[in-house]
Amino acid sequence: MPELTIQTERKTQLVNVTAQLEELVASLEGFLVTLFVPHTTAGVLVQAAGDGATKVAGDIEAALEALVDEARPWAHLHEGDGNPWSHIRTALTASSVSIPLADGRLKLGPRQAVFLAEFDGPRERTVHVTVSR
Amino acid sequence: MPELTIQTERKTQLVNVTAQLEELVASLEGFLVTLFVPHTTAGVLVQAAGDGATKVAGDIEAALEALVDEARPWAHLHEGDGNPWSHIRTALTASSVSIPLADGRLKLGPRQAVFLAEFDGPRERTVHVTVSR
Amino acid sequence: MPELTIQTERKTQLVNVTAQLEELVASLEGFLVTLFVPHTTAGVLVQAAGDGATKVAGDIEAALEALVDEARPWAHLHEGDGNPWSHIRTALTASSVSIPLADGRLKLGPRQAVFLAEFDGPRERTVHVTVSR
Fold first, then answer.
1. Roughly what angle, to the nearest 10 degrees, separates helices B53-67 and C84-92?
2. CB contacts, 8 Å: C79 with chain B
3. Tens digit of pLDDT for each residue in B57-106?
4. What interface predicted TM-score (ipTM) does this complex get?
5. Is residue B97 exposed (0-12), middle (13-18) or buried (19+ Cβ within 10 Å)?
6. Number of Cα atoms under 13 Å in the Cβ half of residue A15
7. Burial track A40-50 (b if 16+ CB lie within 10 A, e otherwise)
8. E strand map for chain A
């Protein structure tokens, strides 16, 4: 099964994987691409690319960190595992997303990009890619 | 590729698109409908319709506005783009959703409806519709 | 259409349905499993299983309850329906998720499990299961 491999560099990081994904799907047959993230502290988001990309991605990183503030006692039951906020932030994104494919190109909107959403980096992450007909 | 076109009327608005979608899929072959929103300040949600529809949709609109309060300095890096909250609220919904199809009808639950979730309206929005076998 | 039936036991409860789902898909042909929850106060999440499962699932339950605190006047328009928070918490999860399938096995990551996310239990819930080729 085709997959993407992504090395993340920060604890919380939206990594634009659009170019890597476009290259992978160019040779695949079908009309719907589904991404699945096999991790519990990373998800997937489709959000703004282009000139404003870094800024919007950074705003979303900051927002998810603020919504699930580490200062709050989220881990009311925890003993060993030390990063409940990483799991909770991931749960607010998605484990899968499906994007139409036409003539080997993702049918993204003109301002969209596909991001791996890392919440417990840096790590090496995988995204499974399935194409349906 | 089939698509829906929706004219939104308010800045934050859950627009019930179920009837329009039912009409579109009635003539399509397959057993799984996938919606994809090609925008970065609008998403898709499946939520409560029926007599309580306006109320539940209104509660969700208010809740997403409250969770991502514009008074907070989300846009820590922003210079030009003025609506980080629109992107963040969208990231808390979904860019795609898949709904089973049987005999040309969406297999929604009895209380469910499909909503375009607008967070930077009013605008004209598109939803791509794919049917898989 | 194949489906899971789940009896939930608490108001807010992440129920691990992985074993039940694995059993169901073992006999199905295809390479992508899509789950759809036909309810408006329950969703689906892929999150951490294993030794830490109860703890991480419990943290996510607590976090979604805290993010959408019942003490806050979410239901600004409500008259009859008394559980706006159940709908709002559901909207922060997902109504559908797609997971790759290979040789009749879900291609989950080693720490992942599939959860029905109940936000208005206890109830009997259904999850529709579709397999695409």
1. 60
2. 55
3. 988 999 999 999 998 877 654 455 678 999 999 999 999 999 999 999 99
4. 0.94
5. buried
6. 26
7. bbbbbbbbbbe
8. 3-7, 13-16, 32-36, 42-48, 96-102, 105-106, 112-118, 124-132
Instruction: Select from A21, A68, A17 the least CA-distant residue to A47.
Output: A17
DSSP for B47-66 reads: EE-GGGHHHHHHHHHHHHHH
Please list the residues that pair with B118 across neighbouring strands.
B13, B42
Inspect the interface and report whether the beta carbons of C55 and A92 lie closer than 8 Å.
Answer: no
Helix (H, G, I), strand (E, B) or coil at B106: strand
Q: What is the pLDDT of residues C35-69, one digit of tens each?
A: 999 999 999 999 998 555 568 898 899 999 999 99
pLDDT digits (tens, 9 = 90+) for B107-129: 999 999 999 999 999 999 999 99
Tokens encoding C3: 């489906």
CB C123 within 8 A of CB A60: no
Alpha-carbon dihedral A7, A125, A121, B81, rounded to 10 degrees: 80
* pTM score, whole prediction: 0.95
- What CATH code is assigned to A3-132? 2.60.120.460
Mean pLDDT value across residues A102-108: 94
In this structure, what are the phi and psi dihedrals at residue B87, rounded to the nearest 5 degrees? Answer: -70, -40
Tell me the average pLDDT across B16-31.
Answer: 95
- Domain assignments of chain B as residue spans, ordered by start: 3-132
For residue B89, the chain C residues in CB contact (below 8 A) are none
Place of tokens 């160019």: A26
Strand partners, C106: C101
Q: Does residue C74 belong to the interface with chain B, where contact is any CB pair within 8 Å?
A: yes
